[in-house]
Structures are given as structure tokens and as C-alpha cells.
Amino acid sequence: MKRINLRDMYPFIKTDVWIDLDDEVAQEIRRFDLNESAYKLRTYRHRAYYSLDRNDGIEQDILFLSISPEEYYERKLSNEQLYAAMCRLPEKSFRRIYAHFFLGMSKVAIAQAEQVDERAVRKSIERGLKQMAQFLNKM
């Protein structure tokens, strides 16, 4: 049995509170303290004070922005306009633009899938985007 003071482990405890622990538990606490000290030393040596693994919510706020109702409405409206513009395109241009921008396929991959020249795919996408821009400007 090992005797430890809880005040050393918990900063909010102001008085001495002694408890008896099994040797295995005390050994795990000691191992945790050593690992934490080693981590702090590595952080200091490598000047890695700002890590995304801090769990303080910084990366959460950056990656997942909460949008206002106005922004949500504007995005919905622009998505509807974009969909309407895409629906006015010829089938081939629609399919190629969808594959390139929404599915992330390269123009070469689209050309190989359709068994056409890459220039034809590129020109078709450019024409489709111009037609969409004209339609959206009229709206």
C-alpha cells in the first residue's frame, strides 16, 4: 500500500487529504505523471505550444463555422439558382460539369470514361460554365 496526498493531484483541494492506494494504482499514477512531464518537455523543446490536439475548441470553431440564418438563406437561394442554371444546360455539359465540380473527377478521367478527347471535355465544360454565367446574370 502506498499513501498519497490528494491535494498534490487535485488543485481545487485546499487541505491535506491522505489516502491509501494499491501499489499498482500508485504505479499507474506515477507512469501518467512521467508521461505528462515528458510531453511538456517535448512541447517546450520543439516550441509546439499551439497544437490542434489541445481540445480547447479552437479547431472546432475554425472548421465548423456556425452560420447565421441570413447566410443559410443566401446559400439556399444561390444553390437553387445554381441548380436552375445547370438544368438549362445540354445533357452532355451538365453531366461533365457535375462530374468535374461535384464528383471531383479530373477532365482526363471524364474523357476516358466517355471515350472522347480531353479537349472536347474541357471545351464542353467551358461552354457550359459560360451558359450558366449568362443565365445567372439574367436572374
Structural features, described:
This protein is mostly helical and 139 residues long. It folds into 2 domains: 58 residues, no CATH class; 70 residues, Winged helix-like DNA-binding domain superfamily/Winged helix DNA-binding domain (Arc Repressor Mutant, subunit A, Orthogonal Bundle). Helix content is 67%, strand content 6%. The chain has a two-stranded antiparallel sheet with strand order 1-2. The longest helix is centred in the first third of the chain and has 23 residues. The mean pLDDT is 86. GO terms for molecular function: DNA binding; sigma factor activity. InterPro entries: RNA_pol_sigma70_r4_t2 (IPR013249), RNA_pol_sigma_r3/r4-like (IPR013324), WH-like_DNA-bd_sf (IPR036388). This is Sigma-70 family RNA polymerase sigma factor.
Which keywords apply here?
139 residues, mainly alpha, sigma factor activity, 67% helix, two-stranded antiparallel sheet, Arc Repressor Mutant, subunit A, elongated
Could you outline the blueprint of secondary structure elements for this entry?
Blueprint: E1 2-5, H1 6-9, E2 18-21, H2 23-45, H3 58-63, H4 69-87, H5 91-102, H6 107-114, H7 118-138
Antiparallel strand pairs: 1-2
Helix pairs in contact: 4-7, 5-7, 6-7
The CATH class label of the largest domain is Mainly Alpha
- State the order of secondary-structure elements, H for helix, E for strand: EHEHHHHHH
Looking at CATH, which topology of the largest domain would you report?
Arc Repressor Mutant, subunit A
- Please provide the count of β strands: 2
Tertiary shape: elongated
> What's the CATH H-level superfamily name of the largest domain?
Winged helix-like DNA-binding domain superfamily/Winged helix DNA-binding domain
Oligomer: single chain
Low-pLDDT ranges? none
Derived structural class: mainly alpha
Number of domains: 2
The largest β sheet comes out as: 2 strands, antiparallel
If helices are DSSP runs of H or I spanning 4 or more residues, what is the number of helices?
A: 7
- Give the integer mean of the pLDDT values: 86
In what range is the share of β-strand residues?
Answer: 5-15%
Radius of gyration: 30 Å
Strand order of the largest sheet: 1-2
CATH-defined architecture of the largest domain? Orthogonal Bundle
